[in-house]
């Protein structure tokens, strides 16, 4: 399963890395690609969408599907 999440508040490479690491820590995630230029995170795996959004928000960013 592939999920695309809109992430608001990323302004630099460190922000991308923080969001990527937060998503990679979610059980069931197999791959993550974060792009601050498009404000999107593409996540592969079988993790629940609400868990992914929660992980991004716990990292300090606004997220929605």
TrEMBL record:
SUPFAM superfamilies: HMA, heavy metal-associated domain
A Pfam family annotated for this UniProt entry: HMA
CDD domains on file: HMA
Protein's UniProt keywords contain rRNA processing: no
InterPro entries hit by this protein: HMA_dom (IPR006121), HMA_dom_sf (IPR036163)
Domain of life: Archaea
This protein's record includes keyword GTP-binding: no
Domain HMA as annotated: residue spans: 1-64
GO molecular function: metal ion binding
Keyword entries, A-Z: Metal-binding
Residue ranges of the TM segments: none
The protein, known as: Heavy-metal-associated domain-containing protein
Native organism: Haloarcula terrestris
């Amino acid at each position: 399963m592939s999920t695309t999440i809109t992430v608001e508040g990323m302004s630099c490479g460190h922000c991308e890395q923080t969001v990527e690491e937060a998503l990679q820590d979610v059980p069931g995630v197999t791959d993550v690609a974060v792009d601050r230029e498009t404000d999107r995170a593409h996540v592969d795996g079988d993790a629940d969408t609400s868990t992914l959004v929660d992980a991004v928000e716990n990292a300090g960013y606004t997220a929605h599907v």
